Each structure stands twice: as C-alpha cells, then as structure tokens.
Amino acid sequence: MEHLGEYGFVVRLRVPYETAVERVATALKAEGFGVLTEIDVRATLRQKLDVPFRKYAILGACNPPLAYRALQADLDVGLLLPCNVTPRAAGDRGRGTSTIATGDRRAGSSLRAVSHEHRSRTPMTDHAHTLTRRHRLRQIEGRSAGRA
C-alpha cells in the first residue's frame, strides 16, 4: 500500500479491472458498507466530452449505522459522505493489473481542519480510514497475489 500524497491510499492488484471492482464491493460488504453509487468515469467522459479514458469507476460506499452516528454528531459530515473508492485499470502498459484508491479523510489542507475539529465526533471518518488503510485493502492485495 502506498500513500497518495494529499489524497489517500492505493493498492495495486494483478487482476483485471472487472475483478478488482468485484473484490472491492465484496470487501466493503464484509465490513458493513454498501455501494450506493457507481459512476463509470470512462463512459461519462466518452458521452460528455467524446474523449478516451481508461476503465475507471467511482464507488460511493456507506455504512448506514456509522453514517447515522456521524450525522447525529454533526450534520456537515454529510459533505464527506459517501466514502469514495476508485478502482481503475492500470493503463495500456499494465494490462491485467488494476489500482484501488481510497481517500484519506484527514488528508488535504481543508479536510485536515474538518477532521481535526470533529475527530472525536465522526466515527464514520475514523472507521473508513481504518478500514481502507489497514484491514481490507491489505486483504484485497493479499488475495490478488495468491491468484495472480
């Protein structure tokens, strides 16, 4: 797993894009998250701008009990929901490999202030950070190594 500078964390998998998307959805479900939205970025850019783009999705994931608790603490937490996860093809040179990235809610100058101010009151933020950084992305990465 690598840090993505200001934005979040990434895992590289030796599996095709479609398999990566399935694994992410399965891992999220195992942790009580559901995928509320799925944006096909490639199709959207093709339709709106008529430009080519790699296979890339934005999955909006939510854990309802955690989201409810966070929203009870601070309604502005809704600005950070759902938690986005972005599976994407690695590109032409990386055929058969994919990248999974997820945001670090404590990253970025404006988000740092929000997270610091509400840290003890936003269980969704802390749980999503822990989920993506340590537990599930490592599990997804480990599965790909065994099957590649």
Task: From the structure above, extract its key features.
148 residues; alpha+beta; disordered C terminus
Overview of the structural elements:
The chain is of the alpha+beta class and 148 residues long. It has a single domain (2-147), classed as TT1751-like domain (TATA-Binding Protein, 2-Layer Sandwich), CATH 3.30.310. Strands 1-2-6-5-4-3 form a six-stranded antiparallel beta sheet. The protein is globular, with a radius of gyration of 16 Å. The protein has helices spanning 17-30, 41-49, 64-73, 109-118, 123-147; strands at 2-3, 8-13, 34-40, 57-62, 83-89, 98-103.
Indicate the CATH architecture: 2-Layer Sandwich
How far is the N terminus from the C terminus? 17 Å
Question: Which class best fits the helix and strand makeup?
Answer: alpha+beta
The percentage helix is: 40-55%
Overall morphology: globular
Low-pLDDT stretches are 108-122, 144-148
CATH class call: Alpha Beta
For the biggest sheet, the summary is:
6 strands, antiparallel
Work out the strand percent: 15-25%
Number of strands: 6
How many discrete domains? 1
Please state how the strands of the largest beta sheet are arranged side by side: 1-2-6-5-4-3
CATH superfamily annotation? TT1751-like domain
Number of helices: 5
Q: What does the average pLDDT come to?
A: 77
Using only C-alpha atoms, the radius of gyration works out to 16 Å
- Give me the CATH fold name: TATA-Binding Protein
Order of SSEs = EEHEHEHEEHH
